[in-house]
């Protein structure tokens, strides 16, 4: 089983089927909105 984890806040985003234990990094919806505001400033 694999897990997708937010690279910013370490929250678990989703799980997916895989032959071995895997961890992938992405961004959750909350962090995407926070970073968009920060980049514009």
Folded structure, characterized:
The chain has 41 residues and is α+β, with helices and mostly antiparallel strands. Helices cover 29% and strands 37% of the residues. The protein has one helix at 29-40, and strands spanning 2-6, 12-16, 22-26. It has a three-stranded mixed β-sheet with strand order 2-1-3, with no helix packed on it. Strand 1 and strand 2 (12-16) form a beta hairpin. The termini are far apart. The model has no long low-confidence stretch (mean pLDDT 80).
Give a brief description.
Helices cover 29% and strands 37% of the residues. It is an alpha+beta fold and 41 residues long. A hairpin with a 5-residue loop joins strand 1 (2-6) and strand 2 (12-16).
Q: Which secondary structure elements does this structure contain, and how are they paired or packed?
A:
Layout lengths: L1 E5 L5 E5 L5 E5 L2 H12 L1
Parallel strand pairs: 1-3
Antiparallel strand pairs: 1-2
Which stretches are low in confidence, meaning pLDDT under 50 for 5 or more residues running?
none
Proportion of helical residues? 25-40%
Ends apart, CA distance between termini: 39 Å
Strand content: 35-45%
pLDDT averaged over residues: 80
Shape: elongated
Strand order of the largest sheet: 2-1-3
Which structural class is indicated by helix and strand composition? alpha+beta
Number of helices: 1
Total strands: the figure is: 3
Features of this protein?
single chain, 41 residues, alpha+beta, three-stranded mixed sheet, 3 strands, 29% helix, elongated
